[in-house]
Amino acid sequence: MTTVLFVVFPYVAIFLAVFGGIYRYFSNRFSYSALSSQLLESRQLFWGSVSWHYGIILILLAHLLAFLFPDVSGAILGTSYRLVVLELIGLSLALYTAVGIAILIARRLTRSLARVATSPMDWILLFVLLIQVLSGIGIALADRWGSLWYLSNAVPWMWSLARFSPEPNAVSPLSLLIRLHILNGFLIIMLFPFSRLVHLISFPISYLWRPYQVVIWNLTPRRPGLTTPSLQPAAAFAGAADPGSHSYSTAADSADESLDMAEPESPSRRQLLSRISLAAGALAAAIVTLPSVAFLLGLLKPREVWRAVGAVDSFQIGKTVEVSFLDSSPLSWAGVTAQTAAWLRRVGNQEFIAFSLHCTHLGCPVRWLEDADLFMCPCHGGVYYKDGRVASGPPRHPLIQYPARVNAGQVEILTSPVPIMSFNQPLRRKPCDS
Amino acid sequence: MRFLKRIWEWIDDLTGASAALSKPLYHPVPRARKTRWLYVFGSATLAVFLLQVVTGVALASGYVTSTGSAYDSLQFITAHRLGSFIRGMHAFGASAMIVLIGIHTIRVYLMAAYKYPRQMNWLTGAGLLLFTLLMAFTGQLLRWDQTGFWTAVVAAEQAGRTPFIGNWLGHFILAGNTVSGATLSRFFAAHVFFIPAVIFPFIAIHLYLVVRNGISEPPKAGQPVDPKTYRKWYHALLQREGVPFWPDAAWRDAVFALLIVVSIAILGLWVGPPELGKPPDPTLIDASPRPDWYFFWYFAVLALIPSWLERYVIILGPAIFGLFLILLPLLAPNGERSPVRRPWSIAIVVTVVVIIFHYSRVGQVAPWSPRFETQPLPPAIVGTSSGPVADGARLFYSKGCQYCHSVSGFGGIRGPDLTDAGDRLTREQIKTRIFSGAVNMPSYNGNMTANQLSAITAFLESRHRLGAAVLPQPVNAPQ
Question: Cα separation of A286 and A12, whole Å?
Fold first, then answer.
């Protein structure tokens, strides 16, 4: 069940959000809008919308930054003073948001015009958003400290999803309320392409600096239910604009805004069937593809185990020898490739250095030249000194060291991944210092 | 015969096969005249691809996709007479495919057949070129010997240079943290399923586009492509002097394809498949991984470019090449097609071909690689079997100098030939170089005793171009 909820469901949600969003963009581009009902009612909308948006944007930003920069966030939350202050700010914003969503729901319930223009999906969306805000507040009050568990459990889990190496157990220790909050969050992501949430990526940043403008409704409503006298353009316009104020509108502006107001034309039966067919096909493809891709990517489980490579006394001080041992995850059919090897140098009574066989240039196996005290790579001629430093040739990094220790009279090496030299620096293991 | 004809008519009636095939088969093509044999490389590539499919399926039926057993199964296939023949054909087929698709690409580029309306032909062809290279690379790895094993590591290391996701990508290629049980299966799946699954639709689209847009006519100087009028002009050309593809043009394709297939079969039979190296045992460190010949040039480039440039070349090199292939038909959709009016295209082709040939040769020799197989210098070369010169010769070998430096034909070629070091260098210069090292030579400071240094210096001083070694006189010897 954990796998279904915290692996399959998030991937399905993201898949639907991405591909559903793309499909909607190309099939019904002008519906990428908040479908504002400002002209139907503006006073309550102002209090609800402003509270909601200012609060939720800051809260989402905090979640996003902590996800992207967990180390920095951890450092910021490192002291109890900062932790408490930030938690209080978060709780305040959550309450502010809750007030906003409550006003928006009340407005849709009490104002007949707004209620008429509210679709079933709008109600579903308002409900899950309310659940999300309330569960967030509940966590802030009951499961302290939310920002810390978010960093320690939820962020690693989300990164594991992003790396296609899901680790659902990371969220197992969390309380039911927190897990509900997480799942509801992905439900909101899933609803993205099917609701007015798509306005999230329409990026109306230009609203911040564009001149004040008056919205003019110049389309005749088509839905019979909306053709009430109070919805006539003149009435709506009279309430929205001050005749004495300086106002203007461009053709494009009025077209955009009027599209916000006009309900999309009901799709014909064929359009509906087409969409159902495409959605069914996409869903079936996702059901088949996602587990396959996840399996393909799921073989990347990092695992490190200590392997004994010989008794301490079998190694001479100052000598470098090749040692072989089973790799970290030997498979029964791996044959000789289940073995791996390292260069082991005894530098003291209890001190050993284990070098990776792999040249840090392109990974070829380096050879140890006993009399020359050098490692040499057969591929491109990289040479290293006995302590792993680069002596000559194309390598830029010293040989990678594997952790080595003495345990119960045996020398042990920690099995490690093949050292992949990244674009900027070696990963996973620090190269030996010069 | 009549019975067979009736069967065919029955099938044709039910399937409409002849009606469906008649359009592509009999579509008119321009008369190419002098250049007509230049048009056979694309179809020959397709023929070799089909050969690869057939021989590949046969090989897959005997190949065990297990890191522990693949090597043994390849030995089993090779030991079988027909298995060896099929392996040989598959290996030479891979080489032929690389050569043919390369020539086909050059032909299309020089004739500017990527211009309107054939841009999409070029783009799908570019995709096929890329997939062919990927097939060649993954195929080399399936030859699961020591080279195949280390090729997987080298591939992961190169992928590791990708910014941001390099480490993840490298281990994804290995199907884990190390080369292990899952690695070979991953490459096998890529070679047999994933890449062919893309190649087949690309070939289908490519062929469809060839029929739809027509085979390009031989370019003529002063006859530029104008997208506004080209289709009409091309249609008139076909009306005027076009010939049906079948059999007027197809016979050349068939004859050339047969020639290629027969050549591959002969090579597969006489030369046989590439020899298997040592088993893929990661603990056997006396490995010298080398790519197949078609990647020698890349192997050389990675060895010879400055190390600071390497990460950019690994990532940006293929990216720029891919970008060039994509942008070419988009940025130059019209204008002159004749190479006579596009001399820079000839210059580019000549430059690329010369570079690839040159670096392929350099990569084959691999002068930068230490020659671990070199043997100690015999006394006849050293000039003596005792004394400091003989000691120096032994140290010259045991200290690894001879892996990179050659003396009288013995040793590596990474460093300068020291056959006549005594003529060129003074004692102090020799000592300084041994102590301080250089960019491509390690410093031996701390790796040698004073006596060892004196002995090696004495040996190198005794090396002269003309005649035998000149042995140093004892210090107190009477003059």
Answer: 7
At B356, is the secondary structure helix, strand, or coil? helix
Q: Which of A43-47, A387-391, B108-112, B411-415 has the lowest mean pLDDT?
A: A43-47
Radius of gyration for chain B, computed over Cα atoms and rounded to the nearest angstrom: 29
- The secondary structure element, H or E, covering residue A352 is strand A352-356
Distance CA B114, CA B133 (A): 21
Rounded to the nearest 10 degrees, the angle between the axes of helix B296-304 and helix B343-365 is: 80
Closest residue on chain B to A361 (Cα): B157
Identity at B14, one-letter amino acid code: L
Question: CB–CB of A177/A143 below 8 Å?
Answer: yes
Which residue is it, tokens 């119960």?
A408
The Cα B318–Cα A100 span in angstroms is 53
Nearest CA in chain A to B68: A335
ipTM: 0.81
pTM check: above 0.80: no
**Greater confidence, B109 or B307?**
B109
Tell me if B137 sits within 8 A of B318, measured CB to CB: no
More confident residue, A57 or B315: A57
Q: Which of A330-334, B98-102, B366-370 has the highest mean pLDDT?
A: B98-102
Of B180, B398, B442, Cβ closest to residue A338: B180
- Burial of A327 by CB count in 10 Å (0-12 exposed, 13-18 middle, 19+ buried)? buried
C-alpha span between B125 and A403 (Å, rounded): 49
Per-residue model confidence as pLDDT tens digits over B368-414: 889 999 999 999 899 888 889 999 999 999 999 999 999 998 999 98
Say if residue B117 is preceded by a cis peptide, omega within 30 of 0.
yes
Give Cβ neighbours of residue B367 (< 8 Å, ≥ 6 apart): B412, B413, B414
CA dist B116 and A344 (Å) reads 63
Contacting residues of B for A357, CB less than 8 Å apart: 282, 285
Q: Which residues lie below 8 Å from residue B211, measured CB to CB, with a gap of 6+?
A: B23, B24, B27
Q: How many CB pairs under 8 A join A and B?
A: 203
Return d(Cα A166, Cα B363) in angstroms, integer. 42
Distance (Å, whole) CA B224 – CA B218? 12
Helix (H, G, I), strand (E, B) or coil at B348: helix
The whole-angstrom separation of Cα A411 and Cα A388 is 20
Sorting pLDDT into bands at 50, 70 and 90, what band is A229? very low
Residues of A in contact with B68 (CB under 8 A): 333-338
